[in-house]
Amino acid sequence: MTRISRIPMALALFGLAFLAGCDGVPTEPVDNGAMTEPASLGSNFAAADGARCATIDFEGFDHGASIDGAVLSVFSTTLTVSSERWTADTGGSLVSHPAKAFDTDSTVPTEDKDLQVTGLCSACAPLDNIIIIEDPLGFATDGDSRFGGEITITGFGPLAGLTLESVTFVDTDDDETPAYVQVDGGTVATASLTGDGTVEVKSGLAASLTNTIKLVLPQGTSGGFDNLEVCQAGGGEGCTPGYWKQPHHFDSWPSAYNTGDTFGSVFAACGGGDSLQRPESGSICNKTLLQALKLRGGGLNALGRHAVAALLSSSTVSYDLTPGQVIDAVNGALTSNSYSSTKNMLADFNEQNCPLN
């Protein structure tokens, strides 16, 4: 795979302005203060059927770095990784043990030539980093686990209409039990036993994905995985707070919501402690939806304006979330008093193509 490079700031700002250009209102500044950049983020692209797709890869990690608990992301939604390994070739049990990034361009450890471009895996050349489970004797000397295990990726729940389309298996030894991939508990892809140091791509899976992908190395099986391609049907449309707050766009508001409805009447988790930050004041719960769209500043203020824009967009255009999912996500942020990740997700969705005028 090609490593994802940083986008120059000027180009990034131009892109954001273009996405918001459908409403004729400049994109508001991004609140960078609380943002955490994902450690690995695949490129988004549009499929022929109008779905958008992204590849979850493991670039951005150093060789041997732990991926358990690391921040991965797809469509601006945070994912969580956990892993377990078997304690023996036979018998034994699964115990918590770190998943790690393995750079296939590396020449260490010498034990793992079947995962190295300069060793037995010349087909690994396009992959760069893959994900493995650390061997019980340690990564530095033994690389991936000889006993097998399971890597679980969760957090897809906030997104609707997802499918897992393809996955890459690495080092499918013909004297081991085939590795496989499960989606929400059901097996959707199984590796062919093509030999030591080989790479196999299983595509065309179209496996409906609600919450969990599990990468399974059966007991006594070694190897790794890469390039999980996830697609989302529809979506790709959203309108900014700047669009929805303009009087000449009030006719675009869905009939279910009015400019005078209070924020708290829609987002039930809103409570007396949800006080706005400067330059605003008071409780967001008592603000009307229109007033929330006009809030200035970061933190809760930014969540408020993007929450309302997301609510209205999800009720009118081909948005990436349903209205119920928007409400649930915002209620969760209000309950936890942790606003930035939800705000960032909704802002990304709101700043896509706006088909309204």
Structural features, described:
The structure is a single chain. This protein has 357 residues and is an alpha+beta fold. Helix content is 19%, strand content 25%. The chain has helices at residues 9-20, 139-142, 241-244, 263-266, 289-293, 300-314, 323-336, 340-350, and strands at residues 40-41, 44-46, 52-56, 72-74, 77-86, 94-96, 99-103, 129-133, 149-154, 162-172, 180-183, 186-190, 195-202, 207-209, 212-217, 224-232. The strands form three sheets. Strands 1, 4, 5, 6, 9, 11, 12 and 15 form an eight-stranded mixed beta sheet that branches. Strands 2, 3, 10, 13, 14 and 16 form a six-stranded antiparallel beta sheet that branches. Strands 7-8 form a two-stranded antiparallel sheet. Helix 6 crosses helix 8 and helix 7 packs antiparallel against helix 8 (340-350). The radius of gyration is 23 Å and the shape is elongated. It starts with 8 loop residues before the first helix and ends in a 7-residue tail after the last helix. Residues 1-48 have low confidence and may be disordered.
Short précis:
The protein has 357 residues and is of the alpha+beta class. The protein has helices at residues 9-20, 139-142, 241-244, 263-266, 289-293, 300-314, 323-336, 340-350; strands at 40-41, 44-46, 52-56, 72-74, 77-86, 94-96, 99-103, 129-133, 149-154, 162-172, 180-183, 186-190, 195-202, 207-209, 212-217, 224-232. 19% of the residues lie in helices and 25% in strands.
